[in-house]
Amino acid sequence: MKYNIKYEKGCLKYLKRLDKNTQLRIIKAINRLPSGDVKKLQGNTEDYRLRVGKYRIIFSKDEKGLVINIIEIASRGEVYNR
């Protein structure tokens, strides 16, 4: 099943600051969603996290499950402090 992937503006900015190898690893992992090291976040949220090395990608799916919204990309220490 093919998903449409939409990125928040801040995610694209963060990706551009990373080195090329890391960018490629993260983009490949996002394109493979929903497979990978994915877990549902705890609490009152419909968000999930994808782990790629020391980076975390926070995303959500729409009701029909056809669109994946990438909400945040950050290193492990930064991402959970929101």
UniProtKB/TrEMBL annotation:
SUPFAM superfamilies: RelE-like (SSF143011). Signal peptide: none annotated. It comes from the Bacteria. The lineage of its organism: Bacteria, Bacillati, Bacillota, Tissierellia, Tissierellales. This is Addiction module antitoxin. The keyword RNA-binding does not apply. The keyword Hydrolase does not apply. It holds the Pfam family ParE_toxin. InterPro entries: RelE/ParE_toxin, RelE/ParE_toxin_dom_sf, TA_system_RelE_toxin. Keywords: Toxin-antitoxin system. It comes from [Clostridium] ultunense Esp.
